[in-house]
Structure formats: C-alpha cells, structure tokens
Amino acid sequence: MPDALALSAMHYGPRSIALTDLPRWHGEPVTTGIYRASVDDFVVDEDLGFVPEGAGSHAWLWVEKVGVSTDDAASRLAQHFQVSRKEVGYAGKKDTFARASQWFSVPMTPGIQEGPIDPAVRIMQVSANSRKLKVGQLAGNRFQLRVTIEEGSETLVEERLAAIGQQGIANYFGPQRFGRSGQNLDAARRLASRDPEGRRRLHPKDGMAASAARSAGFNALVAARIETESPLSVEVGDTVIFTGRGSQFQVDTEALGDVRDRILTGELSPTAPMAGRVSQTGIDQARVEQAVLDTDSLARWMRGVFPREERRAVRVIPKELVWNRMGTTLELSFWLPRGSFATAVLHEFGSFSESHARSTP
C-alpha cells in the first residue's frame, strides 16, 4: 500500500481525484473554455426548502455575499452585531468567488435591518425563527453560470447538456471540498500519520480534513464505477437512494427488476460510501468498495474515526436545467440538491479553467 505521506495532495491511492482528472459519465469533454471570469459569472442562491417561522429569538438574515467565503461573511456579521462568532448560524457554505445569497442567523437584537454591512456583505431580508440555523438545514442551491466555450463546439455542447438533463452526472465532490492545492487532504494525511488507527477523537478544527478524506475516497469509488462502463448497475443487497433525497434502502430479490427500471428513469440512484467502520450496504458491494478504499492508507484511519459509513448517490440529475447561448458565451441555470457541486456539471461537458481575481472587497 502506498505510504500516506508520499502521496501528492490530490490523490487517493494511485488515482488523482482532482476533478479535471476524473472520468465523465457521458464520455470525453466536447469543449474547452473558461468559467468564473468574474463573481457575476457564478451566481448561487440557497434553497432551504422552507421559510422561517417569522417570530422567535433568532434573527434570520437573507444575505448576499460577493467575493468572500461563508465563514468570512459569518465573522463580519458577528462583528457587525457584536455577538460571538459561534452564535452565527448558516445552513451551508457557498462558493467564495461568486455572488451568493444565503440565510444566516444571529441572536435577535435591536437595530437589525436590511442594508449593507460592508462592501462585500449585504442583508437583503430580515425574518425570525425560534431556533438557530444549523449546518445541513437546506434542500439545495440554484446556480446561474456564464462560461465561454470553444468556437465550433456549440452543437456538441447543447447535445451534451440535453443528455445531462435527462441522465445526470457523476456526483463528484468539487475542488472546494479539498481546499486550495489540496490542503484539507494534506491535513488529513498528517492526522493519519500520527494516529494510523484513528483512535483519537478529532478536534472540531479537524472536521474539514476528515471530510476531505472521505470525499477523496468517494471520488475514487465513483471513478472506478464509471470505468466499469456500467455505473448504474445494482445487484441484490446493494444500497440505493432516492435521487436528490436522503431516503435509501437495500435491494432485495423481489424488488431488483423494479429498482433497475427506476434507476433508468432517474428516480433512484446507486450509492457509494463516505467511509466508516460499519458498512451500510450488502456484503458483495461492500467488498468491491473496500478494495478501492484500501488502495490508500487513509482508509484505515477513516474506519477508526467514523463509526459508520454514510451512503451518497453516485449520480445527481440537475433539475430545471436550461441554457442560452450567444456565440461562444453560454449561460446556464440549474438546481442541485445539497452537497452537490456546480463544477461537477461543468466538468461533465467541458474542460474548463477558472479565471478570476482573488481580491476581497
């Protein structure tokens, strides 16, 4: 088995798990191009799936942030309202180099109102709720992207987008999960080198590193499924999930035919694990998956750190996917469930490089 410290940041075992190196659900890219030339080329709007109660001890703020991270925006809100950073809640992290709108919560205090708190953060709406907003308390996100594509590829791009809307994409974790230059995955390797069996309880600050390790293993598993040329195959005992939802179940003999049909229609999807000690699928599927995970010594550490694995869909189907093309400029919008990445959609039809200014307002 390869030594953990000898592996470069964006590898899991022998495989690069950088998004640009991973196999695509629909085959080779049909164009090249640039995305995120400015923050206005990458717009994200959070969808909680519900509305605040309208009354309570916590102010819920619909905030637009431009060119700053969610953590940075939360710190700015804490400073502005003179509350502890720990008292600021949010449902999920949004892209830093984007124009992103999302909900935050702070303890209810006098004087909270709509308007800018600085050049990068603006409160667009104020509501209230009886509880603090918690991480994961959202349905998904809507994206509006503007990219440039290669001249002459327009027809192929539109054909590929139509296929994506019908059949979905590989549900890869995007580069945000691993940190710049894979620094979160590097941090996981340092933790694993000091505690190979994962016996020590993680400090909260190590959560991003542990999540990156699980995500790297998941990307490697999805890539391996695609390379079998039958990524949607399921057998008796395999765990499947309702597409875009968290409900999942193991397939029994009686339901196998029906499940396979529902996978083809997009209602269900096969799953792969976010690694943990106790498997949540059948013996045969677990054995195949463990063979992939064990190509990296992080697997042993993750089995110690996480008591149970979690199952995640290997495929995601963007909802309400629409696009408009003006020459080589392509604008597209779509909705993805929580935990899925817009960059994975771009990866599925093109080989894109990111171009943006990393200045902070």
Quick tags:
alpha+beta; 11-stranded mixed β-sheet; 361 residues; 19 strands; 8 helices; 26% helix; 4-stranded antiparallel β-sheet; disordered N terminus
Q: Helix tally? A: 8
What would the principal axes of the Cα set say about the shape?
globular
What is the CA-based Rg, rounded? 21 Å
- Write the element-wise H/E pattern from the N-terminal end onward: EEEEEHEEEEEHEHHEEHEHHEEEEHE
Helix content: 25-40%
Beta content comes to 25-35%
Taking pLDDT < 50 over at least 5 consecutive residues as the criterion, the unreliable ranges are 1-7, 357-361
Largest sheet geometry: 11 strands, mixed
Average residue-wise pLDDT: 93
Task: Give the tally of β-strands.
Answer: 19
Structural class: alpha+beta
Termini Cα gap:
46 Å
Describe the protein's architecture and organization.
With 361 residues, the protein is α+β, with helices and mostly antiparallel strands. It has helices spanning 70-81, 154-167, 183-194, 207-227, 256-264, 283-293, 298-305, 342-349; strands spanning 11-12, 15-16, 31-35, 42-47, 58-66, 89-90, 99-107, 115-118, 121-129, 140-149, 169-170, 239-242, 248-250, 268-274, 310-313, 315-316, 319-326, 329-337, 350-354. Strands 3, 4, 5, 6, 7, 8, 9, 10, 17, 18 and 19 form an 11-stranded mixed beta sheet that branches. Helix 3 (183-194) packs across helix 4 (207-227).
